[in-house]
Amino acid sequence: MKYKSQKVAYWFFALSMLLLVLQLTYGFIMGFARIGLDGLHDFIPFNTARAVHTNLLVVWLLSGFMGAAYYIIPEEAQRELVNVKLAYVQLISLALVGVAAVIGYHFNWWEGRKFLEIPRQLDFLVVANVLLFLGLILATLFKGKRRTTTALVLSMGLLFAALLYIPGMLPFDSQVTDSFFRWWVVHLWVEGVWELIMGGILSFLLIKLTGVDREVIEKWLYVIVGLTFLSGVLGTGHHYYYIGVNKIWLIVGGIFSALEPLAFLAMALFAVNMYRKGEKRHPNKLALFWTLGAAIVSFLGAGLLGFAHTLPQTNLYTHGTLVTAMHGHLAFWGAYAMIVLAIISYSMPNMTGRKLYLSARGRAAFWLSNIGMIGMTVAFGVAGVAQVYLERKFKMEFMQVQNEISIHFVVLLLCASVLTFGIILYIVDFIKHGRPTDQALEIKQ
Amino acid sequence: MLSKKQARTFFLGGTVVTFLIFIGLTIYSFSKEQDQSNYENITEQVVRGKHLWEASNCMGCHTILGEGAYYAPELTKVIDRRGKGYIKAVLTTPNPWAPNGRKMVAYGFSDEEAEDLIAFFDWIDDIDLNGFDTVVSPIAKEKTNN
Ligand code: HEM
Ligand code: HEM
Ligand SMILES: [Fe+2]
């Protein structure tokens, strides 16, 4: 740690960890409901659990991205954050808005639009919060001594993510139009601007961990984010095949979304090659595991499994089945959960001065959570493919098929337990690091 | 070899060009001639139905147009498959509805609310889904075969 104000990041990461635990809890509620253990139905029906599960996912990732920015931007810009007090105000308001939304979901205060369930009134608070965050980050960046590509790409990702929230707030009478612009948020986030955030964090970590020259790393960063937008923007069309808009999207969406894996492949090759090339062997191996892991698993989850159902001929049958849930889990995990866990693993020893990265617990956390998540992906995948054949090809009744495939949800729950055990170990490590301290400023990294 | 400046030009150029094409295609597919969502048939009742659909977060269990959750059946073409009477019964019953063991939230909608939702489904059913409707409803399939 080079600047005192970087310590703010710790509290965003702590909030992240807390929300992650809650997210997993609601995942279990849904998993159990799917095998018939739905005792909570009257208090937390499936739609409540789902809204909480997916929204907490987004909020803990955003909190992680914000923490990452508060840690990275001062170091890249070579100055303290412009205003530390306001950063804490932003932290607390983020937590309050998140909590209000989640509590609201238990009392039917929501808008049933997948991933955008936050009611419009609260949306304005979200916007205010994000504006405050962006103001602090951008002011620090532009008052700083230098403006690196890494910092610019990261900030640009955060800025665009905020702008793209707006189309999701517009009201429409038609379900088709509503859905069309919902994807401007959901798709253009995860397959567009969030990749800039991921790329920025990845590039920062690779510079620190491998010692490869910044110029080389940042050049490839441009190539990667270039590929992302080149394929991802028109790739939005893969959500427009079957929702009641023009057939032209079958062609445009089919071609461009099929190219999207290239950006993730480039990310994986880039990370592995920089690691090979690097002369420096940073002692924080754990951070390196998570960093390389994010680049590789995102290619599997987003690139390969995304490609598996992105062609219109396939998507006609898989659209809106458990195949989508299979892909959604590994893609979110590999690309965004793992990169957040990577920056936390890297920054915690620097902020607290405690170098816990040699512990076996950290390694176990990495392997158990990844093995658990891959097992869950397989379980969702088998259930999904069976569902596609039985329901969509052989025209069996929905619930008859669900009963056939419920055994895969037992497997899902077992694998989810392995994942959860890994996450608990990760959080134990997080807690054992203790609080951030100014004494850590003197420690060499 | 590629320089950093060239890499940046690739990024900025690619982004601007694809984004402009994207906007163009969006405008094109919402132009009146291209509309296949029978937009003109959206009545006030359909809009009320849509609001109920959102306020109840039906999408938290069901899919519609293939979007939503995978806990309960796809509702595109549901009128074809079940008929209006059945749907109305499900929506208005104050008792938890649990066909085949999986519970639905007992909304206990009024008659009028149920009608609004049915109007919404009715409108959905006439959207041209580029063939997806034939996948989710066997009856739609028969229609296209004829
Ligand atoms: C990190 C990147 C990605 C994440 C986090 C992600 C996540 C998701 C999620 C959560 C959904 C479900 C959305 C909903 O129904 O509301 C989805 C759908 C989809 N994704 Fe991705 N995705 C990523 C990248 C990709 C890529 C690169 C491709 C293609 C190569 C792809 C192809 C698809 C397709 C075709 C669907 C629609 C499935 C359907 O019709 O039901 N995804 N993705
Ligand atoms: C305890 C572990 C977990 C369990 C048991 C679990 C279970 C589930 C279930 C049952 C669903 C709903 C599927 C449906 O609609 O029927 C779901 C949705 C989802 N979960 Fe999880 N989950 C867990 C952890 C995670 C994690 C760690 C992530 C992200 C990294 C995640 C991301 C998602 C996403 C993106 C969706 C929406 C998928 C879609 O709509 O296609 N989950 N989860
Ligand atoms: Fe997408």
TrEMBL record, chain A:
It is found in: Membrane. GO terms for cellular component: membrane. The chain crosses the membrane at residues 12-37, 57-74, 86-104, 124-142, 149-166, 186-207, 219-242, 248-275, 287-308, 328-346, 367-390, 405-428. Keywords: Electron transport, Heme, Iron, Membrane, Metal-binding, Respiratory chain, Transmembrane, Transmembrane helix, Transport. It holds the Pfam family COX1. One of its GO terms (biological process) is aerobic respiration. Residues 8-445 form the Cytochrome oxidase subunit I profile domain. It comes from the Bacteria. GO terms for molecular function: cytochrome-c oxidase activity; heme binding. InterPro entries: Cyt_c_oxase-like_su1_dom, Cyt_c_oxase-like_su1_sf, Cyt_C_Oxase_1, Cyt_c_Oxase_su1_BS. The keyword Repeat does not apply. Its main location: membrane. It is a multi-pass membrane protein. Belongs to the heme-copper respiratory oxidase family. This is Nitric oxide reductase, NorB subunit apoprotein. It comes from Flagellimonas pacifica.
Automatic annotation (TrEMBL), chain B:
The keyword Metal-binding applies. It comes from the Bacteria. The keyword Metal-binding applies. The chain crosses the membrane at residues 9-30. Keywords: Heme, Iron, Membrane, Metal-binding, Transmembrane, Transmembrane helix. Residues 44-125 form the Cytochrome c domain. One of its GO terms (molecular function) is heme binding. This is Nitric oxide reductase, NorC subunit apoprotein.
